[in-house]
Recover the amino acids of this structure.
């Protein structure tokens, strides 16, 4: 029975190109394991950037046809999207090779290090990256396994979602969407927020309560989020926007100037090349942990000022004739609303485009999307949607993105449906002024990065 990273030498990932899988694969290769994997996006004769970067990291990559599985492999790892009918699964079973889920392996890795687990329904990747930046710049040489690529690591020619440091600390994202967060027993648990996303609130509260109980030493929460605040252990360790929260790490004096925000943490000045009050809260969270570990406010502020961001998190694609084009991973109601609000100080008008993912999630969150979008939009702002992204499977297609648009229209907001996203540019052209932000939002669809760049080029 494999229960520790010491119990295996050779590991194979089915679906290795996925963000969560590739991060763990790179980490294990970085600590000396023999790592290989396959993915349905690897196609004979086609160049695949992720595959090239994985192979550059020493990971052998195969087509998803079973050829990569052999007797010398100790462990096979699958994501939740991998079905039993996949050839590698069948072959691994025939060879009696143990098969585990990605989350089980991450929990195993987390037990091998002093771990900081970052949880919450929004901001996990950003906060993890900020904390990594602060700790690395402070000389602590942490490791990270993230859900998004850090620009600083991408510049090294890597995917950017993992790095092995020589220090004792490991930073991981603790995902609540699949319930895997309950498997981790970190030294430090960080809870950013709790908002309705994949589950009902009572289910989420139960999951995060378990996260709290599993945390070994310090549990730090956001006092500005009422649901997270209800799980507080020690107010002195918590963070929050404004002194009225009573949190030990209080943010204030927030100002946004274009793509730059300034604020204070316990009267110490900070500035970040990003947008939105939600990013001040992300910095507060990272600083609360770093300060607990002995990093001064001055050193933390210097690290945050040089922070370069992460992939598809309010990523400025460029500016054309006064039009700012921003690509963002926002995909649940609270995230989308926060993203729109963060763009409003940049220009007098925001045109937001959103592609919902999954018929089930869209149906579940329909009313929340409508309420959050309507509340965030100013009279001059607009929300556009294209049809729901369908990743395959047996989903019941009994809802359309146009249903949400019609609901938003009834609330008196400017809302438009363009079924085929390839028609977006021509449709929005007449709506663009010389002082506009075009905000492109969506997740899960592997083609979104290319689409957003195509939009920018076509404008």
């Amino acid at each position: 029975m494999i229960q520790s990273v010491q119990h295996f030498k050779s590991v194979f990932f089915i679906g290795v190109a996925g963000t969560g899988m590739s991060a763990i694969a790179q980490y294990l290769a970085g600590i000396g394991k023999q790592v290989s994997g396959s993915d349905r996006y690897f196609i004979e004769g086609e160049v695949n950037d992720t595959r090239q970067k994985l192979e550059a990291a020493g990971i052998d990559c195969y087509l998803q046809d079973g050829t990569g599985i052999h007797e010398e492999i100790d462990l096979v790892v699958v994501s939740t999207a991998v079905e039993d009918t996949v050839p590698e699964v069948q072959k691994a079973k025939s060879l009696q090779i143990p098969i585990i889920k990605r989350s089980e392996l991450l929990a195993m890795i987390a037990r091998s290090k002093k771990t900081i687990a970052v949880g919450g329904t929004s901001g996990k990747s950003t906060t993890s990256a900020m904390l990594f930046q602060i700790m690395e710049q402070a000389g602590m040489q942490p490791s990270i396994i993230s859900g998004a690529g850090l620009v600083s690591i991408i510049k090294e020619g890597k995917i950017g979602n993992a790095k092995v440091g020589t220090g004792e600390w490991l930073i991981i994202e603790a995902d609540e969407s699949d319930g895997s967060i309950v498997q981790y027993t970190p030294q430090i648990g960080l809870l950013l927020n709790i908002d309705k996303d994949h589950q009902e609130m009572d289910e989420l509260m139960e999951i995060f309560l378990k996260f709290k109980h599993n945390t070994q030493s310090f549990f730090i929460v956001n006092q500005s989020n009422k649901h997270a605040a209800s799980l507080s252990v020690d107010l002195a360790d918590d963070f929050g926007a404004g002194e009225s929260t009573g949190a030990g790490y209080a943010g204030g004096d927030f100002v946004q100037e274009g793509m730059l925000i300034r604020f204070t943490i316990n009267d110490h000045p900070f500035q970040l090349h990003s947008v939105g009050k939600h990013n001040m809260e992300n910095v507060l969270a990272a600083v609360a942990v770093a300060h607990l570990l002995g990093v001064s406010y001055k050193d933390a502020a210097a690290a945050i000022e040089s922070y370069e961001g992460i992939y598809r998190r309010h990523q400025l694609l460029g500016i054309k004739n006064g039009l700012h084009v921003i690509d963002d991973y926002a995909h649940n109601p609270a995230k989308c609303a926060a993203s729109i609000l963060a763009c409003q100080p940049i220009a007098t008008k925001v045109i937001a485009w959103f592609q919902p993912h999954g018929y089930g999630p869209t149906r579940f969150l329909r009313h929340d999307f409508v309420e959050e979008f309507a509340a965030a939009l100013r009279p001059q702002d607009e929300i556009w949607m294209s049809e729901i992204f369908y990743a395959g499977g047996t989903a019941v297609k009994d809802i359309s993105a146009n249903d949400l648009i019609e609901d938003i229209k009834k609330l008196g907001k400017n809302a438009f449906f363009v079924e085929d996203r390839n028609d977006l540019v021509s449709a929005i052209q007449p709506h663009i002024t010389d002082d506009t932000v075009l905000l492109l939002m969506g997740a899960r669809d592997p083609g979104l990065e290319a689409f957003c760049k195509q939009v920018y080029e076509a404008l």
In short: Residues 5-101 form a domain with the Rossmann fold fold (CATH 3.40.50.720). DSSP finds 15 helices and 21 strands in the chain.
